[in-house]
């Protein structure tokens, strides 16, 4: 074993671990003290030698069972494969990529973690240096003896790997040192061979050196000493729990991870992770979680373009480390879109690469659930409309028949939420179910069943292209929907019924605060689906999947519909990669009171819009008052009513300017309060009201109260929102109240569905062309056929 910075061999301290003699410790301290960060400065004396100790976040001995636990990893080994460190031409280092990796390691080190790097790259760096030296030497000799004309015929000899390693080690380490210095972190190089692990004293020395470096906040950079290492023996591989032959950096990283009792080993290569067949083949799928014993079902491809190991070597090393108590993730460290944050993403528990786990989940993975929903949805779409309606009617009956069980489960959720105090009052109201809510749900589901008779497969256009060549456009399901909702268990049967009616597969991800309620409601939904053998069409995600990870399943999910806070919707819109998101991030709804407003209507509409259910997304948030109504009896009635209803008033800038003692002035005119609060602002005309709504609104629902039809029509035509009402409460913006039965949400998007989204919003179309030996060449200039493009009558819709 060689250790840069002349770290002396370590000796064993009786009864404790391996520590160095006092003079060595002092020397190392003097060498590295300028760049130390002393974390958790609790000091313990071992054999009269002070050491700075950092308590680990967990006891080592068992690997993490789930990705979400990786954020607790304290000691981490990052293994950089040759393909990660080197350029595509294999001569020289990928400096940008390496700098990004150093930045991520430094970030984690500065969080208080203990980072180690097992790196390749010495051979490639040495090859670059030696090629340069040979070319320079040859050019000088040939210039002296043969003239410049022969320079172009120079050939580079084959370079021996050990010589390249010897020439590249110092330069590689100097590069690491320079990069880590930018983050005020010191690095130390350690070179090892397989023999260092077979010699007990050397193994102890290595262990002690690494422990001491970690205690001093130094990042060890470890590599096989390729300048002297012998060729690997063909059959010396995994030989049990306590022995693994170090024949490449994969096995070296695994051996070090177990020796040092690390929590996590991250293996970076040039592939996304482990696939169930060689990457690039048609049916290859990335394996999210790999369990011991699964290797029998995996076919390994060839090794990477550089380096000694391949994926098979990585898997064997990973399983050996896992058996030794270290969690492992194999991921891509070369992809330009993810390499800049791949290490930190893994530590944060995001779904990156392949995670090795000894704990197999009881149920299916979310990928399997999505595939089950896809298959179930296709079977559902193939049912007769009456059969889909029968499923929904059955679900409506179950909501009332099993009322007591549902309310008992909901009571558990409410008690847990109140005990933990993690939900605000508006969210607690959304979480709560009642007999009246369940009855309303059942009525809405029956409406959906009645209106779904001709939703799927309905012909919306027929065209005769030519003689005996007829074209139809028909409605079809979108595919697999992912609906993510917070604190709204009543959302589950509503969305399920709409998915069933439209023939879509459905993945549901509810908030953990409604876990008991969601569980029983999903069970009842599957019970209803079972009457026609399509139980799997609706799936409830119960695994520890993060929302961001679900949003990356672009090959399995066709549409995401978020239902929850504006922050949830914004996070999903940001995280969704290649999957459309339908919904709204905010419900900033306005009511404009015109000069010609009816006194009787104003207070009723405003009270209902704000006070009937203030937590709803269609509740009033900003009240716009025409300037001429200030200091009138109507204005006084509005203020008195809001005070009686205990609505806190915030003054807009213009409104505040008219008052001597005004309410608190708003910080922003774009606030969704979701409670008994609202903003009042003054406008000079209906035109200014429209402009205010366009500037500060969220295109959700906006209302005018007036008896002037011309003014009302101007407002209705010019306000560009999903729902625009005249003399009606904002609370009518709802799928049930619109007669849709229910809604999957309210969309403020400008494509596809807009406003409350019912069955129609969950359908798309496909084209059916029926011909008889028709080919395009028959319609050319000299062909025998002519286009007709005649519109044909549509078939009669079901009267029911």
UniProtKB/TrEMBL annotation:
Q: Which CDD domains match?
A: AAK_P5CS_ProBA (cd04256), ALDH_F18-19_ProA-GPR (cd07079)
Task: Offer a single GO CC term for the protein.
Answer: mitochondrial matrix
Q: Which domain of life is it from?
A: Eukaryota
Q: What EC identifiers does the entry list? A: 2.7.2.11, 1.2.1.41
- Write out the pathway annotation from the protein's UniProt entry: Amino-acid biosynthesis; L-proline biosynthesis; L-glutamate 5-semialdehyde from L-glutamate: step 2/2; Amino-acid biosynthesis; L-proline biosynthesis; L-glutamate 5-semialdehyde from L-glutamate: step 1/2
Known catalytic reactions: L-glutamate + ATP = L-glutamyl 5-phosphate + ADP; L-glutamate 5-semialdehyde + phosphate + NADP(+) = L-glutamyl 5-phosphate + NADPH + H(+)
Molecular function via GO: ATP binding; glutamate 5-kinase activity; glutamate-5-semialdehyde dehydrogenase activity
Give the principal location in a single coarse category: mitochondrion
Q: Name a biological process GO annotation.
A: L-proline biosynthetic process
Which keywords appear in this protein's UniProt record, sorted alphabetically? Amino-acid biosynthesis, ATP-binding, Kinase, Mitochondrion, Multifunctional enzyme, NADP, Nucleotide-binding, Oxidoreductase, Proline biosynthesis, Transferase
PROSITE patterns (alphabetical): GLUTAMATE_5_KINASE, PROA
> What are the residue boundaries of the Aldehyde dehydrogenase domain, all occurrences included?
365-630
SUPFAM superfamilies attached to this UniProt entry? ALDH-like, Carbamate kinase-like
Q: Where in the cell is it found?
A: Mitochondrion matrix
The chain positions of domain Aspartate/glutamate/uridylate kinase read 74-332
Q: Which Gene3D superfamilies match?
A: Acetylglutamate kinase-like, Aldehyde Dehydrogenase, Chain A, domain 1, Aldehyde Dehydrogenase, Chain A, domain 2
Q: Which family does it belong to?
A: In the N-terminal section; belongs to the glutamate 5-kinase family.
Give the record's subunit note. Answer: Can form homodimers/multimers.
Q: What does this protein do?
A: Bifunctional enzyme that converts glutamate to glutamate 5-semialdehyde, an intermediate in the biosynthesis of proline, ornithine and arginine.
UniProt name for this protein: Delta-1-pyrroline-5-carboxylate synthase
- Tell me what organism the protein belongs to: Zonotrichia albicollis (White-throated sparrow)
């Amino acid at each position: 074993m060689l250790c840069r910075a002349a770290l002396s061999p370590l000796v064993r301290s009786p009864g404790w671990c391996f520590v160095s003699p006092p003079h060595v410790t002092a020397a190392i301290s003097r060498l590295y003290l300028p760049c130390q960060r002393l974390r958790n400065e609790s000091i313990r004396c071992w054999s009269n030698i002070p050491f700075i100790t950092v308590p680990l976040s967990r006891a080592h001995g068992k690997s993490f069972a789930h990705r979400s636990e990786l954020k607790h990893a304290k000691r981490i080994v990052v293994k950089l494969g040759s393909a990660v460190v080197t350029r595509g031409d294999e001569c020289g280092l990928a400096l940008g990529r390496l700098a990004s990796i150093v930045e991520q390691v430094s970030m984690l080190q500065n969080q208080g973690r203990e980072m180690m790097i097992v790196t390749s790259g010495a051979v490639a760096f040495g090859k670059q240096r030696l090629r340069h030296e040979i070319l320079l030497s040859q050019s000088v000799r040939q210039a002296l003896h043969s003239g410049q004309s022969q320079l172009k015929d120079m050939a580079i000899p084959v370079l021996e790997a050990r010589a390249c390693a010897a020439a590249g080690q110092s330069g590689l380490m100097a590069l690491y040192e320079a990069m880590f210095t930018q983050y005020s972190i010191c690095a130390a190089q350690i070179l090892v061979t397989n023999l260092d692990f077979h010699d007990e004293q050397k193994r102890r020395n290595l262990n002690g050196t690494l422990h001491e470096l970690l205690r001093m906040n130094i990042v060890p950079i470890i590599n096989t000493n390729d300048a002297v290492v012998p060729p690997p023996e063909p059959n010396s591989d995994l030989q049990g729990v306590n022995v693994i032959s170090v024949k490449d950096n994969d096995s070296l990283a695994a051996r070090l991870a177990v020796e040092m009792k690390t929590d996590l080993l991250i293996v970076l290569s040039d592939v996304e992770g482990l696939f169930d067949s060689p990457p690039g083949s048609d049916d290859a799928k990335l394996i999210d979680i790999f369990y011991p014993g699964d290797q029998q079902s995996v076919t390994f491809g060839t090794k990477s373009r550089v380096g000694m190991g391949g994926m098979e070597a990585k898997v064997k090393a990973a399983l050996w480390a896992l058996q030794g108590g270290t969690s492992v993730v194999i991921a891509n460290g070369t992809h330009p879109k993810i390499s800049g944050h791949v290490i930190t993403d893994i530590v944060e528990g995001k779904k990156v690469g392949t995670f090795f786990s000894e704990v197999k989940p009881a149920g299916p993975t979310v990928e399997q659930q999505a595939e089950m929903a896809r298959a179930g949805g296709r079977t559902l779409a193939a049912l007769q409309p009456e059969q889909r309606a029968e499923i929904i009617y059955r679900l409506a009956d179950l909501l009332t028949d099993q009322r007591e069980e549902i309310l008992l489960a909901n009571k558990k959720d409410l008690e847990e939420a109140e005990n933990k105090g993690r939900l605000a009052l508006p969210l607690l109201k959304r979480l709560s179910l009642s007999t009246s809510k369940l009855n309303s749900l059942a009525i809405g589901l029956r409406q959906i069943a009645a209106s779904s008779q001709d939703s799927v497969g309905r012909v919306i256009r027929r065209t005769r292209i030519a003689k005996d060549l007829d074209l139809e456009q028909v409605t079809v399901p979108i595919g697999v929907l992912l609906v993510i909702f917070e604190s709204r268990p009543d959302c589950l049967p509503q969305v399920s019924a709409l998915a069933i009616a439209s023939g879509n597969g459905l993945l549901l991800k509810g908030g953990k605060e409604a876990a008991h309620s969601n569980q029983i409601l999903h069970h009842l939904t599957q019970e209803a689906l079972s009457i026609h053998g399509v139980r799997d069409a609706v799936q409830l995600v119960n695994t520890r999947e993060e929302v961001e990870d679900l949003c990356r399943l672009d090959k399995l999910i066709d549409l995401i519909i978020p239902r929850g806070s504006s922050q949830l919707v914004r996070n999903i819109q940001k995280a969704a990669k290649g999957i459309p998101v339908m919904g709204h991030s905010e419900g900033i709804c306005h009511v404009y009171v015109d000069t010609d407003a009816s006194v009787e209507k104003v207070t009723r509409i405003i009270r209902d819009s704000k006070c009937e259910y203030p937590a709803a997304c269609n509740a009033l948030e900003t009240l716009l008052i025409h300037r001429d109504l200030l200091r009138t009896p109507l204005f006084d009635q509005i203020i008195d009513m809001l005070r009686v209803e205990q609505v806190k008033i915030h003054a807009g800038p213009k409104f505040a300017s008219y008052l001597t003692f005004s309410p608190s002035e708003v910080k922003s005119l774009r606030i969704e309060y979701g409670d008994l609060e609202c903003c009042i602002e003054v406008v000079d005309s209906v035109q200014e009201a429209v402009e205010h709504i366009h500037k500060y609104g969220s295109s959700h629902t906006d209302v005018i109260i007036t008896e002037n039809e011309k003014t009302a029509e101007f407002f209705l035509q010019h306000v560009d929102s999903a729902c625009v009402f005249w003399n009606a409460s904002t609370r009518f913006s709802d799928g049930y109240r619109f007669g849709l039965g229910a809604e999957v949400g309210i969309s403020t998007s400008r494509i596809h569905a807009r406003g409350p989204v019912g069955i129609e919003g969950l359908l798309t179309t496909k084209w059916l062309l029926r011909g008889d030996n028709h080919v395009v060449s028959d319609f050319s200039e000299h062909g025998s056929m002519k286009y007709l493009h005649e519109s044909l009558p549509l078939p009669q819709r079901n009267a029911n």
